[in-house]
Design brief:
Pathway: Cofactor biosynthesis; adenosylcobalamin biosynthesis; adenosylcobalamin from cob(II)yrinate a,c-diamide: step 7/7. This protein is mainly α and 261 residues long. It contains 11 helices and no strands. The longest helix has 24 residues.
């Protein structure tokens, strides 16, 4: 798929794209398929709306944690409910990508072998370690933000910024394999990529550490892209999921550090 933009900048952003993005990145029972735009547009053109999906997912996590806190549960327990709701909404697709990348990148010696490992449904030692550490970090950071009373100002921007960074990886890196979810979705046009980054940046402005959030997110995204390029020669759906997870943890860490300082 080429990166040419459709005529007129505002025509690149359509309300129906939000439904397509939700259908692709969540398990919500939506009437439209993630690959069937109401206007016949390619799914990748809806990538600008990925941060809005983060708004929905992060907001659901905040709501679940708030309900748990409201009935008197401790921050650590409330954090489990919030994290659990987010994982259920996405079907753990990003967590799966993190585990697959950890297994493939460090379990194979050649590009072909790494891609083969990443496609394998079984999880290995590296994947277990990455998944466990990622979940523990997110749980602890969310619990800390709950205790500080700033969960919404931390979790929602983290969910939005991290999904905006996914779109940059989609745009900049070639597809590493001929099939798979990322290849089916396609390469987003430039306007979709710019729109996603703008939405992520706006979300970062609502944090108390927007400079750190934007700077750290940029650094981690560039590093993730460089690593994927070096290991497998491009990006896959697993790479996008892993990028989302790592950036989300980075943003939560930056916001938590600013909150406690």
């Amino acid at each position: 798929m080429d990166r040419s933009d459709i005529s007129g900048p505002w025509q690149a952003y359509r309300p129906g794209d939000v439904v397509i993005a939700l259908g692709l990145l969540t398990r919500l029972p939506l009437p439209a398929s993630a690959f069937a735009s109401l206007s016949g547009r390619a799914p990748a053109r809806a990538a600008w709306a990925y941060p809005l999906v983060g708004l929905v997912i992060g907001g659901a996590g905040v709501a679940a944690a708030a309900l748990a806190t409201g009935v008197g549960l401790a921050p650590g327990v409330s954090a489990i409910f919030g994290l659990g709701v987010m994982v259920l909404l996405t079907g753990a697709m990003h967590e799966d990508g993190l585990a697959d990348c950890a297994d493939g990148f460090w379990g194979g010696w050649t590009r072909e072998r790494r891609l083969e490992i990443m496609k394998d449904s079984q999880i290995g030692t590296y994947g277990v370690i990455a998944l466990t550490l990622g979940l523990l970090l997110r749980w602890q950071l969310i619990a800390t933000l709950i205790g500080a009373g700033t969960l919404a100002a931390g979790l929602i921007p983290a969910a939005m910024v991290s999904r905006g960074c996914m779109v940059w990886i989609m745009y900049r890196l070639p597809h590493a394999r001929s099939g798979g979810l990322s290849r089916q979705t396609g390469t987003p046009p430039r306007l979709a990529m710019v729109g996603a980054l703008i939405l992520g940046a706006v979300a970062a402005l609502f944090t108390g550490a927007w400079v750190c959030v934007i700077g750290a997110s940029l650094a981690v995204t560039l590093a993730s892209g460089a690593l994927a390029q070096a290991k497998i020669g491009g990006q896959t759906g697993d790479v996008l999921g892993a990028t989302q997870q790592v950036v989300e943890i980075t943003v939560l860490t930056a916001i938590t550090a600013a909150t406690l300082s």
